[in-house]
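Before relying on records like the one below, remember that each one covers exactly one chain. Contacts with other chains, cofactors or solvent are not represented anywhere in the record.
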Amino acid sequence: MIKIKHSKIPTTLYYPQIDKQTKRMIGIITSILVKIVETENNWDIQLLYVLYAYHSMVHKVTKEMPFFIVYGRNLNRPLDSTLHT
């Protein structure tokens, strides 16, 4: 029989701060999708564009885009390359 040594690391599954941020993000995305569904019925196709818009918004608290926080660089948007040339 093989014995495997391991150590237990105490963790918690509930982080109130993260839960609040996630609920806020889902609320924003849902409100945008509701507006799309009122005029069109292709929310599944528009979801990609909604997420792109969300990740390229500057947030009030961090003063940064979520994309920059995750990847450490700015999001390359089509209009940005047009304006900087």
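The helical segments are 16-39, 43-55, 66-71, 78-83.
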